Amino acid sequence: MGRRPASFSRVAQPVRTLWQRFAFTALVLAAFGLMLLGKADIVVVKRLQIAAVDAVAPILEVLSHPAAAVSKSVETVISLRDLHAENERLRLENGHLKQWQHVANLLESENKALKRLTNHVGPPPASYISARVIAEAGGPFVRSALLNAGRRNGVRRGQGVVSEDGLAGTIVEVGELHSRMLLVTDLNAQIPVLIGGAREPGILVGDNTNHPRILYLPQNNRVSPGDLVISSGHGGMLPSGLPVGTVSSVSESGIHVKPVVDWTHLEFVRIVDYRMQGVIPGPMDPPPFTVLAPDPEPSLVERLGVTRGKTDR
What we know:
The longest helix has 76 residues, at 43-118. This protein has helices at residues 3-39, 43-118, 300-304, and strands spanning 127-138, 143-147, 160-162, 167-174, 179-183, 190-195, 200-205, 213-215, 228-231, 243-251, 254-259, 268-273, 306-307, 310-311. It is 38% helix and 25% strand. The protein folds into two domains: 16-122, no CATH class; 127-273, Rod shape-determining protein MreC, domain 1 (Thrombin, subunit H), CATH 2.40.10.
């Protein structure tokens, strides 16, 4: 019983020595042979490759689950960490919004009550004509844009043009198929506005720069940087309340406004079809006078006093 292990070790020792000497060479030859078999267009080899991949695929799928689970766990931890901070921020923001919502509801109910009490007549509703900016004319003397809507679409001079941000300009030229918009920054642009919470009236005057000025303000006005500038609606050409810009600076040189519209990204606009009754003629206005047709003269039968089916005796 003790001789067999010794004889087995004597036989295995030369094989182990040969394998250690020629293992690298054998592996290189095997890899080279596999490459030749892979290049050979043999049906048997293709089938063996497919079978090998089919056999290894379940194993790879099983091995991929732990890696995916670890990756998903890491992403979950990171999202939970960010989610906690995001929840805190949203909780604070939600509290502020609830306070403002309560104030807005109170103001809305108060406003409705005052309107009913005073029998308030609101402004007429405004409709819109969508158009696209097809050309721009920018330079030291002109700030305007060409729109692809004209007289056929109901566009007329004096209408306001708004973007998604606020008032962009007014229509100054109308053709059958196009119209030209004068930007609020143009030298010839003059728009009546209201400034700040005190609603100080003034005129926004363009000066061909990106910061037009406000003129004709009342004395001892309370205008400060950051005040919102909106259209006043005076003159009946524009509706009131359109955002125009914010006061950027108040100095001895004047009051300058930063417009809310970004001219470099102005692509689609809406032309405000605003018709104030009694000021701008429109379909909602009654005609200035009505011509009444004269009463028809009585017929001979009526003058003789004869009615249908009956004769006075």
